[in-house]
Write a structure and sequence with these properties.
Low-confidence stretches: 1-19
Mean pLDDT: 89
Shape: globular
Strand order of the largest sheet: 1-2-3-4-5
Radius of gyration: 18 Å
Helix content: 40-55%
């Protein structure tokens, strides 16, 4: 096993990000439910204030909001946003962090239109309820990791072993479409692009590992380059879609 593969495997063994997706057996792990944050959001936000923390990052649970195609129920988001507004807590919202509804195929061309429609519904909900607490939105969390983990490594949904690049391309298409909707519907919103960043060095004892390590190192920037239109502009990326860069190191 090469150095990059060992590094990523160590992240997975530590549970890095994997808890945000549906398990291989079909069971979805909902952290907002299992930690009871959805029940005690106000108390959680108030507990942060003595530490000077007034900004939190949360996620919309698409699978709950659109449990049936085209029918949107925002009660699962309202239980977070109402307490945030009441406690003057700023929310940075991820639209795609807890996966997607069971009837959605992330590799399908229809995924982009479904995600665009979902994004519009979220924007309309935020606008109509006047939630000024939400200042930043991340259309898709960690495109690179989701593509690798759901593709090449096949350790998170959709558990495909040979489609890393296609998953990444479709996620970028969806993120670009969502970004356009958000900028049109919520003109003051800041767009956030969170990606994992890691410095990868080759194992001198593994022949040829230098080439593979460098390929992994440079690949970590592809999602930003695609979303900005610098790479594969046919995916719909534009410079204005990369506004705030979020780094998980």
């Amino acid at each position: 096993m090469s150095t990059p593969q060992l590094l990523f495997k160590s992240f997975l063994q530590a549970g890095f990000e994997c808890s945000t997706h549906k398990r291989r057996d079909g069971i979805r792990l909902d952290l907002l439910k299992s930690t009871e944050h959805e029940q005690f959001a106000r108390e959680d936000f108030e507990r942060l204030q003595p530490f000077g923390i007034r900004t939190v990052r949360s996620a919309a649970r698409w699978h709950l909001i659109e449990a049936a195609p085209g029918r949107f129920d925002f009660s699962s988001l309202k239980v977070i946003f109402d307490p945030a507004a009441q406690t003057d807590t700023e929310i940075l919202l991820d639209l795609l962090h807890f996966g997607w509804p069971d009837d959605v195929d992330v590799l399908s061309p229809a995924f982009v239109s479904r995600f665009r429609r979902f994004t519009y519904a979220v924007a309309k909900f935020l606008r109509e309820h006047g939630y000024k607490c939400c200042t930043g939105i991340a259309p898709v969390n960690e495109i690179s990791f989701l593509s690798w983990g759901g593709g090449e490594a096949a350790v998170i949904n959709p558990y495909q072993t040979t489609t890393t690049h296609e998953i990444k391309r479709n996620l970028v298409r969806a993120a670009a479409a969502a970004s356009e909707v958000l900028l049109n519907e919520l003109p003051t919103v800041r767009l956030i692009s969170p990606e994992p960043v890691i410095h990868i060095v080759p194992n001198p004892d593994v022949p040829g590992d230098q080439v593979e390590a460098e390929a992994y190192r440079t690949a970590q920037f592809q999602a930003w380059d695609m979303l900005s239109g610098r790479m594969n502009p046919e995916l719909g990326g534009k410079p204005e879609y990369v506004d705030i860069i979020g780094v998980n190191f």
